[in-house]
Write a structure and sequence with these properties.
This protein is of the alpha/beta class. The protein is built from four helices and five strands; from the N terminus they run E-H-E-H-E-H-E-E-H.
Amino acid sequence: MTRVFAYCRVSTAEQTTDNQVQEIAAAGFDVKPLRAITETISGSVAASERKGFKKLLDKLEAGDVLVVTKLDRLGRNAMDVRATVEKLTDLGVRVHCLALGGVDLTSPAGKLTM
């Protein structure tokens, strides 16, 4: 059975990830609370250096789905986002981005979009 995870990030303590969690649920993704990784950290920090994202990587397995609201949740710039998606692809994880119409970034259409 496919497990669905969400990665939600905000940059400052004055912000909340609640709206991202709600947007993912409204898009029809059923994410169990333990599979919703949220963190407060600047987008200037590479995904691979984020404590919460590292924790997420330890949980993900081949066949899982990771949902984000926007591409910038995954990285600080185009190169970081691409490297992050490639790493997830290598793990066998599908990545859906709601801002891009929910496209799976690991699919041929998603790769073209990237």
